[in-house]
Specification:
Number of helices: 2
Structural class: alpha/beta
Largest sheet: 3 strands, parallel
Strand order of the largest sheet: 2-1-3
Distance between the termini: 39 Å
Order of helices and strands: EHEHE
């Protein structure tokens, strides 16, 4: 029985970037979740922690370092 795919969270306020990065990750066999804001990302990480996060540093509501 195969292990379930690892989940990666892609955080960027630009939809085309989320789509591009998410598509490539899915092609590589990852399950992808996406968020457009820092708060969305925090909510997703809290509810279902991902194996990894691809994070933009400039978001509309907070910076990626926060």
């Amino acid at each position: 029985m195969a292990d379930p795919p690892q989940r990666v969270l892609v955080v960027d306020d630009e939809e085309n970037i989320r789509f591009l990065v998410g598509s490539e990750l899915e092609l590589a066999g990852f399950e992808v979740a996406a968020a457009a804001t820092g708060q969305e990302a925090i909510d997703l990480v809290t509810s279902a922690p991902p194996a990894a996060v691809v994070l933009a540093l400039m978001l509309p509501d907070m910076d990626g370092f926060t």
